[in-house]
Amino acid sequence: MKCDGLSYQKYINKGLNIFFLFGPEIVLKNNAKDDIKVYLADKGFVEKKMVQDKEIDRLDKVIAENVGGSLFASKIIIEISHTKGKIPESIQSIVDMNHLKTRDDIAIIIDSHVDKVSNSLKWVKKLDEIALIIESKKLKSFEEKIWLKQQLSFIESSKKSELVNKISALSSGNLVAQQNEIKLLKLMSSPENSCSNSSMKDQAEFMPFELEDRIIKGDVKGAIRIVNSIKELESHYAALLVWVVGKIINNATSAMQSSRPDAALIKLGVWNNKVGDYRALMSKFELKDMIGFQRKVFQLDLSNKGINKANFWERLNDLIMELARG
To answer: pLDDT digit string (tens) for 80-127?
Structure first.
């Protein structure tokens, strides 16, 4: 069964346990994958096995080892991450694993980096009979606006059209950047942030979004001033600050692993005029440093949620100073 990255929700619950995702629009693909996992969790799939590129050649053995679930007979998801090259024989051969068609205790999600797949291929025709195939194409302008409107369901109707037009105009053709804007709006619209944000608007220099600019430009004093102001006036924005810092680190980490860092940053939703600042930030660190920062963001999130006893604001300031100073 085939569908596109906008209509997949109509077909997820058709009883299929094999899912093949491909196409150039990473946001649609990731959203589909997340929704598939929610659907499978509702069906009792509680375990997951990740298969990376280095294991794909022995995929038949991995599947055989996991058929029947775990020792405790729980249902298992095998998630296959295909990130380079053509679709290998080992993935194509899944269509001939007849035992998978009759089992309800194993699900397979194949996330492929390829942009296109020929419907005339024999294995694709077979896959169409046993799996949900989701193609996430780049959206046309009017499709982007439809998608944006769906994502902004938490915004009251009277403001939705205006926001759709603004976000679309700022980031036309870039769903990653648009989704980042949506995440910020969700954080700001959450119940804990329901009080008036007029003080933030009156002091625009202290808006959480400004924090990204200050950090990537190496402005330690400016970044700390923003954090301290928010701590005093709008401390409920702590989660938003964690998200902003985490976004910077994740963007830099991904770009440092790419052969084309500038293109990778733009694909991740970084605006063109900020790419140079990101590159300057990245030049101060090695990849292992960024991975260490990712761990610190995780701990910072736990601290904000009260799961550990560390002082959230002190940890946040320490991490920002490390990042901005380099």
So the answer is: 989 888 999 999 999 988 777 777 888 999 999 999 999 999 999 999
- How high is the mean pLDDT of the chain? 84
CB count in 10 Å sphere of residue 214: 20
User: Which residue ranges form the domains of the chain, and what is each CATH number?
Assistant: 2-135 (3.40.50.300), 190-325 (1.20.272)
Residue 150 vs residues 154, 182, 219: alpha-carbon distances, Å:
9, 11, 37
What the block records as the tokens of 55 is 């294991």
Residue 16 near residue 130 (C-beta atoms within 8 A): yes
CB 134 within 8 A of CB 30: no
Compute the half-sphere exposure of residue 54: CA atoms within 13 Å on the CB side of its CA. 0
H or E element, residue 200: helix 198-202
Cβ-contact 35, 124 below 8 angstroms: no
Token match 């205790």: residue? 105
